[in-house]
Design goal:
There is one protein chain. This protein has 9 helices and 13 strands. The strands form 3 sheets. Strands 3, 4, 5, 6, 7, 8, 11, 12 and 13 form a 9-stranded mixed β-sheet that branches. A two-stranded antiparallel ribbon has the order 1-2. A two-stranded antiparallel sheet has the order 9-10. It is about 40% helix and about 30% strand. The protein is an alpha/beta fold and about 290 residues long. The mean pLDDT is about 85.
Length: about 290
Amino acid sequence: MRLFTDIVQAGAITRAAIMLNSSPPAVSRRLTALEKRLGVRLIERHARRFQLTEAGKAFYVRAQRILAEIQDAEAEASSHAQRLKGRLRIGAMFQGGQRSLAPEIARFAMRYPELQVELVVSDEPLDVFTDDLDILFQPEQPNQPNIVARKVTEGRLIICASPDYLKRKGRPMSAADLAHHDCLCLAQGHTVQNRWRVTCEGSDHDVEVTPRLVCNSGETLYEWILAGHGIGLQLEWNARKDLEAGRLEECLDSQWILPWYAVYPHRGYHPPKIKAFLDYMKERMGQHI
């Protein structure tokens, strides 16, 4: 089951072989043996890609749950020794917010040398079950069954640009001025985030801007803003160091507050590693993010 889930998550037998420190033929043989034992084809293999069959999709979902239960059982047993062990797989939808989250995760991992910590960063929606995550950080409270959501912090979205850009194009003084600026927007799938919220005279106003550049990578969007290509939205905590250093400037007032939740599967038993990590992040995000 672990081999099969590793292959699916890697997206290719060759990449799975590298991840498993094996060879593509060996991994392929093991997959074929699994399919032969089950009497069904799990993956349709093609020259440059593969695709899960219906049976493969069902087996993948069930295998993830079984492996998670095994991991929980091992963690519960090892918790009596007061040690954190095993794997902790964390997902983050942070529009580039890994600038603040990733260092904290690394510091947490240093505390527990027997714990293997994985960080999956994406500007596209993630799912704790489909993406085999122990914890997912996201800005919306989910309404899925069998999911627990714990609010860990809040973040303000700001409209910002580099001093070089503002020198060239001028500083917007009102929401209407954004029509004359190079607006940089993030895309999620086919949806472009071009509705920005500006605070004027104590009231919030949603403004539809015309994108000059669009990208589905929050990190790339941040680099564009920093390089002076235009004006864009960023989480305040993500841009804090560059704001303090004068490399970025906030342009218009915005009180656009996003709550951030730690989401994880609801199980009868929660491993100590999850509790320890959530307690750590609650403290650190409250202080520094």
